[in-house]
Request: fold
Amino acid sequence: MTSKPTVLVARAIFPEVVDRLRSHFEVEDNPKDIIYTPEQLAQRLQGKQGALTTGSERVDGALLDANPQLRVVSNMAVGYNNFDVPVCTERGVLLTNTPDVLTETTADFGFALMMAAARRMAESEHFLRRGEWTRWSYDMFTGSDVHGATLGILGMGRIGQAIARRGALGFGMRVIYHNRQRLDPSLEAPLRAQYVDKATLMREADHLVLVLPYSASSHHAIGASELALMKPTATLTNVARGGIVDDAALAQALRERRIAAAALDVFEGEPKVHPDLLKVPNVVLTPHIASATVATRKAMANLAADNLIAALTGGQPPSPINPEVLRK
Reply:
């Protein structure tokens, strides 16, 4: 009898998805949700042909040196900056991710964060909870309108387009965007989206939303110089990746009221948050939960399982990151 491939599920996920994997593989899972050190991860992967990971597991040359038998790593995330893609591709290790299934949920959350920043929701809630609300005044927590305002989007992939659709069709917003490549006019037209250069985006956006992927080239894409271009009444929302924004520069701009407010779901070095961001009142902070609905997280887990099952049983994984490995 041919033995089943062996796989590691590196973090706790839905038990029913682990059960699905057990019907195909010998599975070592992690129900206690321990975040493995690189050394622990390398040890846990000994003898494993596959792994289901999240963004907290780094897969690089050192890990592959310790585990040359590893054939596929399936990320339960859209982003994959935890993977050294060129090294994995060179070693013939297939990488996969979970795009599409979280697009609409993340767009919902990004829009919610933007509105919370614009209307000073977190700031006013803290005021209320402290017992400081004793009277009404005409200018108490006055913010800025979202309807009819200019929505700026940096990064116009699936999630960026979904946010643009909400802004243009739901709130009558003017939509401007910057992207590595301009969208085809057939995509721009239904979104009522206008392509602009980055400097124009920074200057004209009333509400700037970041949804670009993280890479070395996008590190600190929003820093002190970009923040200096923004309107003092503008807001900035980041549902992309930590490191895209220079968090220290943003905290300073918020403290000095050089922009009105920000809303952040991702941070440099998360789960640590830059201490200066915790000291300014005009920022909404959430712990990387843009995709956190039960339905969406289950869809992500199942797609990650689908990728792993297909890759190790001779099928076609739905969402390969480096499909050239398959062609080899």
Summary: The longest helix spans residues 294-312. The chain has two domains: 6-99+294-327, 103-285.
